Please model this.
Amino acid sequence: MSTPHWQECLDFQMNDCNFMKTTCMGLFLSRKYKEAKRGTAESSQAFEELNDAADPDMVVWWEEQERVAQGSRIDNPSALDVYDVRLNKGESQVICHYIPGH
Model:
């Protein structure tokens, strides 16, 4: 296979590949959009259940924290630290026994 023929084969393959990507893109994006809509509906329902179970005073406080963080995020990126997960580690329930000779 000569160099020009090799180049033509590569060009044909790349052009065909890009053409197929372009023609199939609509179907792919349509499918992904439908999946995203279903996921949004499920997430909204789960959020509403969580929001209904939370203490209303805490919800008001969280909304105020969010408003302040979004308002000052351009000038102070550390304002978004309110979105970090803060968990207190619980005590371990594991009991270890030392067995001599093992």
Observations:
- The helical segments are 3-53, 56-72.
- The two ends are 70 Å apart (CA to CA).
